[in-house]
Amino acid sequence: MRTTTGSARHKSKKRLFKRAKGFRGGRSKLTRTVKETLLRSGAYAFRDRRAKKRDFRKLWIIRLNAAARQHDIRYSEFIFGLKLAGIELDRKTLSEMAIHDEAGFKDVCDAVKAALATAPQPKHAEATA
């Protein structure tokens, strides 16, 4: 008697089609097209999980720059001042603080300004002054 892969093939295809649910046209109905689409979608998902991290960091930096400039300090000076002041908050937390806790962010900015005022100036700044 000839053996077939009936149940195994059916289970495999069912698994593929379940993952392709919501796709349009042949992308959800044709086995070969479904396989190609799922392969490509997996590549996009892998790529974009990394891109998402970059995009959020960019957003936090833009927000921090805008919030810091309201307190008369540039983003680059703000970050340098955070290091000098020993404040170890990340950009995400600072960004949320700038939006939801303006008084707290103002305190952070004041601490940064104080740290920058006491920091020694770099040599090239003295030469140009």
Automatic annotation (TrEMBL):
One of its GO terms (cellular component) is ribosome. The keyword rRNA-binding applies. Pfam families: Ribosomal_L20. PROSITE patterns: RIBOSOMAL_L20. Keywords: Ribonucleoprotein, Ribosomal protein, RNA-binding, rRNA-binding. GO terms for biological process: ribosomal large subunit assembly; translation. The keyword Ribonucleoprotein applies. GO terms for molecular function: rRNA binding; structural constituent of ribosome. HAMAP family: Ribosomal_bL20. Belongs to the bacterial ribosomal protein bL20 family. Binds directly to 23S ribosomal RNA and is necessary for the in vitro assembly process of the 50S ribosomal subunit. It is not involved in the protein synthesizing functions of that subunit. This is Large ribosomal subunit protein bL20. It comes from Rubripirellula lacrimiformis. The lineage of its organism: Bacteria, Pseudomonadati, Planctomycetota, Planctomycetia, Pirellulales. The gene is rplT.
